[in-house]
User: What shape does this take?
Amino acid sequence: MADGKAGGTKGGQALLFLTDEQLRKGIEAMFFAYRGFTADPDRILEKYGYGRAHHRAIHFISRAPGTNVNNLLGILGVTKQSLNRVLRALIEDGLVESRVGVQDKRERHLYLSESGKALEAELSEAQRARMRVAYREAGHEAVAGFRRVLEAMMDPDQAAYFNAMATKEDKG
Amino acid sequence: MADGKAGGTKGGQALLFLTDEQLRKGIEAMFFAYRGFTADPDRILEKYGYGRAHHRAIHFISRAPGTNVNNLLGILGVTKQSLNRVLRALIEDGLVESRVGVQDKRERHLYLSESGKALEAELSEAQRARMRVAYREAGHEAVAGFRRVLEAMMDPDQAAYFNAMATKEDKG
DNA sequence: ACTTTAAGTCAGTGTTGTTGACATTCCAAG
DNA sequence: CTTGGAATGTCAACAACACTGACTTAAAGT
Assistant: This one.
């Protein structure tokens, strides 16, 4: 494994010759790209005194309105205490509403208020704008490849959440 | 922009119809994939009492041995003070050597020691292993697309650093 | 009644980022 | 040669956000 070569060991698939250098380039690309990916929302969040944790909460509440805290915990992969701090701030500021469950009164169902939706839209549009440019520059087939590699890179549990959130509009 | 449609406005390139939903899926894929991407190194780092910041420093020192602090600062995009804390720990633990510059005695040139190289190899191999699996699952063309999209997603400055680190081995 | 589950809270700790103040070194203008 | 500014790097203090662990409250399940 220290000889710098990997892959191409005649599996059923097409051969893939991957040098350590090529893999390393992919790793660095992830690092730099993720920074670009979060840069625009970070600037917006700063205006409101929020951080990435708040963004993530807002994003997934927007994505699955009425979700409960436990579910959000699973998606975000953080501790209860950590999420709670963020959620408390968002609720106090009136961006998120927490409603007691009807069937199960222990649960709290989370929704974005109007102002919450407004911030979500602002953050989301900034991030989509960058994504759109990147997709356009890279082209149609590149996008499909991009998605395939990312999905293969996820942990199985996370991939399950990811695919569970697929909608009818999204095929491939 | 609130109508959920974007792209396909007959530019010179092939048409790209991108719904907000598709873009959002890409955003979420980045989020989940990055978590998988960092999961393995995180586990290793924990054993040694280090964090991601240490990993990044080790990675780029390994990549460009003899680099000075200022250069590293530009690559990592953090403040001098933040990097310094990390560097100090690595130097105290004997993983990194800091040598006073010959031409300019203000500069400190950074190198990995033998134990530093060993940790770098451990971290790097874990991350490459995941990358390798993802690349294999996704296939050859997907990898090219993956790289193209990531590069387009970077900030221009970061993309410059990224491309500057390209080696003769890496074409495309 | 007893246990489990969902949510929230309090206290303490660690990593990582920030700003501010400071030391050293280089270089160029006077 | 000296002096002042710019560049390089260091030290100290603080804020954000993650973590663990222990605990409370309320509701559901058995």
The domain at 35-164 of chain A is CATH 1.10.10.10 (Arc Repressor Mutant, subunit A). Strands of chain A lie at 5-6, 18-19, 67-68, 96-100, 108-112.
